[in-house]
Every structure is written in C-alpha cells, then in structure tokens.
Amino acid sequence: MPAATYDAIVLAGGRSTRMGDVDKVGVVVRGRTLLAHACDAVADARRLVVVGPSGLAGVPDRAVTVQEDPPFSGPVAAIGAGLDALGPDRSSLVVLVAADVPRAAEAVPDLLDALDRHPDADGVVPVADGHRQPLLAVYRSALLAQVLEAAAPLADLSVNRVTAAMDLFELDLPDDVVEDVDTPADLHRLTEETHRG
Q1: Which listed residue, 116, 140, 142, 175, has the most CB atoms within 10 A of its CB?
Q2: pTM surpassing 0.90?
Q3: Count of Cβ atoms closer than 10 Å to residue 180 Cβ
C-alpha cells in the first residue's frame, strides 16, 4: 500500500429510504456495523470525519462527527460538511467512503496506488459495470473544495455532476467490491455471502 498521507470522510447521513425501517449503516456484518467497516477501510487516515447523525454505532473514538446543513440534504452537502470539518490544514488528499459499501477496505489501497501512478489526475474514481462510484474515491482536497465552492448551494446536487469538472482517473474494480447496500435484497445477499464465506 502506498504511504500517502490522507484525510478521510465517511458518509453516513442518508435516510436509507429503500431499506424500510432498517438503519443500514447500523446493520451488523461479520460482528461489526457497516459504518465500522467503512471506518476500518480508512484506518490509516491522518484524520477521520464521519458525516451523519450523532450517536451512530461504530464511529471510532478518534473521529469527528458532523452533519450536513440542512440534515439529509444529500451527499454533496455531506462532502462539503466533511471538508469544512477538516479545516484549512486538511491533507492534500481526501478519501471518501460511503458507509454502505461493505468491501471498501479492498478498494481504498488500489485507489491510493492508482493516484500515485497518475500524479496529474485530480483524483481516482472506481468504475464498475460501466458506472462511476464517486462516493468511494480519492480526491485532491483543494480541487474538490474548489468545485464544491463553485457549485454552491450544495443541497440535493448530484455528486457525478459536481465532480464532472475534475480530471478523474477511472479505475476498473470488480462490481462486488464497490457494490453498496441500498435495499433489503442487497442486505440479504450480503448476509448470505457472509454466512458462506
């Protein structure tokens, strides 16, 4: 794994509307919540910000927890809140991890390594099944802050639309590594895979 210094933002503030009454980031898989697995994926981060409601299970003691304003105003607003929490002395690199991507830990080293190999890129975003996953990616933090500032106000914006202004290297990764848990069927599949594995 590259020795890159980075800060991390874990996004855990969605409403989980497609999960019914289940708070998906609190779902326990392999003995830990999905949120805890997401935080584990960026254990090497210099600083960690979790964006979501206070009191979530699985937030490490070292993490700072903030929430986007207004609450539940989407991932772009959450990213903005995370960058604000890191402040002006943030690392030159920031890794974003959505809390509902159970295998994020397998992707993060590859993303950092790809950026090391493509130093002119503004960041690295994984591509699976032909689609970008911009919420599991590494960005040059100053450039990310610039595109967010240009896009303000941030509520309810599309992450792909906002980051389209950045020169991102697209890294092909296996579909199952970047898959997120959005529905009860996704959760059932993950649980079955865990039992088999």
Answers
A1: 140
A2: no
A3: 18
